[in-house]
Structure formats: structure tokens, C-alpha cells
Amino acid sequence: MAARPVELGSRFLEAAVEDGVLRVRLARPEKRNATTQEMYRGLKRAAILADGDAEVEVLCLTGTGEWFGAGGDMSGTPEDAAGLAHELDPTDHFPFRHFELCSKVIVAAVNGLCHAGGLDLVLYSDVSIASDRASFRAPELLRGAPDPWLSARLTAQVGLARAKYLLFTGARIEAREAEAMGLVGKVVPHAEFERHVAWALEQIKRTGPRARALLKADVNRRLPQPDVALFRQAIQSPELREGLRAFLEGRAPRWPRG
User: What is the pLDDT of residue 234?
Assistant: First the structure.
């Protein structure tokens, strides 16, 4: 069966349904796959579409070239300013809750660098497979941004001590260390990456669709809910504005005191 293209509302997302898999690729390599708000909203749509499409059994997310995803686009430049203006809640673009609510299994195929919001995408997916060239980092606090989606899932994934180490130092870790601490499910040599992802997708499709949907819901039911209000409070804070400005200007932040 030929691939069926899917439009997700961002020119930086390539998507199609083929052989029961909705494949979505972040395709903005010139910006290290930094995620625009439209891209986040498109990934949210992908989860909703997969959930309601009987042809889709698995949603598979991957990146392009050396990058899976470097996190949110700090420039704030929208692809569709008019469309975003209709969103009353600026946090509602994010797909993380919808990844967990989707009844279909979501696979994160981490082909390369995976930082910040890219790491969130992995943590809210069901199965994660990484190339041994991948690297992982949670640098949000270096920008003055408290990420409640990250804090809600990282501790459950790697344990309290490791989560705090990653969050408060912003340390970059390589794929094998990420696998050892439980941050990703499986790491494979880069030359075998595409083949192993294809094998995993086939294995998932062999399982009972209703049973795996029930099991996913049961597992996710036990997870803590992110405190999204925390992010809303920080959006307009002087600290976050300075963190973003410093990042864009390539300098150390001068944190406001008091």
C-alpha cells in the first residue's frame, strides 16, 4: 500500500501513514530541529489523528540528520502568527498530554541530539530507541525556564537523584549513559538504527491492539500530572525574559535579584 501523506500544519513536519504506522519527521535541520509552536501543535494533531484513525497502529516520531530535536525555538518567530493568535492558552500547543492520552503506541526514534523539548517528546512517548550517536540534555534552568513536563516525568524515569543531577546541572549525557540510567529503552549502533526501529514497529503491530491500548492507559494512569500552571507563571517573568535574551545574544545571563 502506498504511503498516504498527512498534513499537520507545519512545513517543518513530514508525515505519512504507511503499513499501519503514522511516521512523523521533524525536518528543520538548519535550526537543529528547534521546534516552533506550529511544530508542537502539529505533533499534538498527529497524536489526535493517530488515536482516531483505525488504519494507524503506531505513531513513530524521528528527526533529521544529526538532530532529533533541540527543544523549543527560542527566537519566538511563528510560522503562522494569525493561527497562533486564536490559541488563548500559549501552553496548549504542547503535545505531551496528548501523547499519553493517545491509545496508539508512540515510538520515539532518537537519531541524534535530543535536548530540552526534544527530551520531553521522548519522555512522553511509550517506546524510545536511540542511535549510539544521540545525546541528551535538560538545559531549561540555564534559560530560567521551569519545565513542569520534564520534572513530572524525568524522576519517574531515572530516579530522584539522577533527575535532580540532570535538571540542576544541565549536563549533557551520551546515549549509552542514558540507556544505563533508564532514560531511553534501547540504544543501538547507528548503522543498525533504522533496521532496529523497523523491527520494533513490526513487533508492536503483532500485539493485540485493544490489549496494548488498555495496558498503555493503565501504565499512564499511575503517572503524576505536570503542574502546567508553573509554566504559565514563568512565561512573563523577568528571569525567563533575561534567560531567553541571553541565549539569543550568546552570553551568560544576568539574573535579576530580589
Answer: 75
Could you tell me the CA-to-CA distances from 159 to 80, 93, 117, 166 in Å, in that order? 39, 28, 20, 11
Long-range contacts of 240-244 (CB under 8 A, 24+ apart): 240/143, 240/144, 240/145, 241/144, 242/144, 243/142, 243/143, 243/144, 243/145, 244/74, 244/76, 244/143, 244/144, 244/145
Alpha helices in 71-227 (DSSP H): 81-85, 96-101, 117-123, 148-158, 160-169, 175-180, 193-205, 209-221
CATH classification at residue 97: 3.90.226.10
pLDDT at 80 > cutoff 70: no
Q: Is residue 242 part of a domain?
A: no
pLDDT of residue 27: 96
Beta-sheet strand order (sheet of 186-188): 4-5, 13-18, 21-26, 58-62, 105-110, 127-131, 186-188
Q: pTM of the full predicted structure?
A: 0.91
Query: Shortest CA distance to 47 belongs to which of 70, 64, 22, 26?
Result: 22
Q: Is residue 258 part of a domain?
A: no
Residue 122 domain-assigned (yes or no): yes
3-state DSSP assignment of residue 113: strand
Dump the DSSP string for 75-108. T---S-HHHHHT-S-TTTT--HHHHHH-SSEEEE
What number is the average pLDDT over the span 200-207? 98
Mean pLDDT of 127-136: 98
Enter the DSSP assignment of 23.
E
pLDDT at 90 (0 to 100):
56
Domains: count for the chain: 1
What is the per-residue pLDDT for 251? 87
